[in-house]
Amino acid sequence: MTEEIIIAGFGGQGVLSMGKILAYAALMDDLEVTWMPSYGPEQRGGTANVTVILSDSTISSPVLDTYDIAVILNQQSLDKFESHVKPGGMLIYDPSGIHHKPTRDDITVISVDAMTATIEMGNAKGYNMILLGALIKARPMVSIDAVLRGLKKALPERHHHLIPANEAALRRGMNLVVNE
Amino acid sequence: MNEEVRLMKGNEAIAHAAIRYGVDGYFGYPITPQSEVLETLEAEMPWETTGMVVLQAESEVASINMVYGGAATGKAVMTSSSSPGVSLMQEGISYIAAAELPALIVNVMRGGPGLGTIHPSQSDYFQATKGGGHGDYHLIVLAPATVQEMADFVGLGFDLAFKYRTPAMILADGIVGQMMEKVVLPPVRQRRTPEQITEQCPWAATGKSGRGHRNVVTSLELDSAIMEKNNERFQRTYAEIERNEVRFQSYYTDDCDYLIVAFGSVARICLKSIEEARKQGIKIGLIRPITLWPFPYEAIAEVAKQVKGILVVELNAGQMIEDVRLAVSHEMPVYHFGRMGGIVPNPLEVLNAFKSHFNN
Amino acid sequence: MNHDDIIKQGTKVYSRPRLMDDRNMHYCPGCSHGVVHKLVSEVLDEMGLENDAIGVAPVGCAVFAYHYIDIDWIEAAHGRAPAVATAAKRLNPERMVFTYQGDGDLAAIGTAETIHAANRGENIVIIFINNGIYGMTGGQMAPTTLEGMKTATTPYGRRVDLNGYPLNITPLLAQLPGTCYVTRQSVHTAATTRKCKNALKKAFKASMEGRGTAVVEVVGTCSSGWKMSPADANKWMEQHMFEAYPPGDLKDTL
Known about the structure:
The structure holds three protein chains of three kinds. Chain A is of the alpha/beta class. Chain A has helices at 15-28, 75-81, 114-121, 127-138, 144-154, 163-175; strands at residues 2-10, 32-37, 47-55, 67-72, 85-93, 108-111.
């Protein structure tokens, strides 16, 4: 099993930390994992993306040209990465920031209205966890249990009180995806 | 706890490995993309546990001279920086080499020249492997491709530096510095006691205590006859390192018709290109030099006997290719594919570059 | 009459300090370095610091200090002695670490290292020989060269419009909270030499007690660079150097 994933959006949307929690979940499930951010000034409000690779064997390149899954949070990222999803791959996007919808018909396209769900939950910081929940439901590469253990590992002790809120967001995201 | 698998950035792995190796001192100055080394050390507060000294210096010039001062007293000391900062350190590195001091310097390369970019690059290959500062000297240069190697090469770098009394460098790039991967940190070692340091480093300026004669650490010798002898001694050391310490990794070289040579994280990008090429029936092998100095000339020459051509892939305008050409003595086509300015090619680009050179 | 006969005839009142090597110095006649070397040797011996001292030598005329004083030495790159000493002291806190630097080393190329080491309050002693000229490289302008003073690179005299003002760096160091003792001395008479020796003792003691950075500036002569006889150089120093760099304690928190 190898899953090559790009998560892309604006800096501040929690793109890098979403990738990080996914990477920690993979660690919990004894998978090999790489987490490669686009780093630098992008972190201050420009576009941000992170490549996460999960595999049950050794990972070669941390840099990719095509992806099994793209998680897309804004229009610029959709324009940039839609064509880089492998045929048969998956594109998950939040429609709230998207004016021109994805057009590929050789991939699975899933719309997850995470922004609306975030507002309903009243937890702005849960946005990326809603999307992560949707991702692991749509493509069960790691278990929710692994994600929760990963969260515990990734967060410093003083932030562990936030884990229940994050779990709620994760489960909300899972419920937003109905697998066939 | 020693065997615990952890997830961290390459830069963080360097900091944790340094504490666990029993490094005595770290002196550094912030610069992207390696600031996590100093940040992690400051957060870990090793002065409370191992007694390791961590100091944010006023400049890279001060940092490297602090390394010189610490190393002169026989301590295991290191610094880290990125390309522009490492340029500032070159004078100090030359002095460290000339004074025959063990030390570790980490360069997490970014794109240059000048202030350049904060994004990944390998354009300091010449600087690292051909001297960098003034005078005839070499550093032992280790090129990590994984976060695990970032951690492992701290100990390896110090072991080699102390064995040969010469500075070692970890030449990483922004990719392996910034990416997170699984890592098993090296076992915890005790810092050496003053007695152990005196025994291991009888030359160190630790105070005359118990010795009876003075130790002087210097790179100055105005008598040319003696200075030439000093240089001859350095060269004998370098020759010994070249005999003993060449390290590299080969992939798919048993049956390859072509060879790619790449170092650091770029080698991993190439490996994916090669796996794709093999699906298409093109047999490419890969040699990844782990020591950039001493360079694996013989290993490349050996594989070169069986291949039709070589592609050297680097994040620069063509630096390591000169050593690859030396290895094969221009007996075959040796091409270069590189991206500059912080651009990292993906596996497809590398494969396309290969095909454009070799008409596949 | 030989050396021993002279000693036999009376009481020995003076000898080469025990920690000073019996070899010819490369310093010029009248140079202040020899006197300061002697004082450092005496003070280290009298304070029992022979085995604990680590000296950091500069680039400049005192580059070979390690040839004359029998302790461990580290020869630093030009201007970097305070950085070198910082690490040597932090990694060996039980040792007595001092730098010995000239004006070019300390106040031109090494200004940043000097100020930052002092500002961190490193527990080191900085001995600063200020003779207003670059001796080793052949008499060029130093940061402390006085206005109007002729050097190889100011052949018509230092002009502030071209070369800037003489840099009076010691009061600057005295302002820093990291310094515990900052003093300016000279060694051109027996009385000032004795005072300078006491200042060095005080500085070394403060450093061993972890009180912060101690700075001992010694305003000295360079008769070769100034192109004067040693006697004239001493007079010229009193008349001109002391006007810009008056001797005395600038800070004493001890």
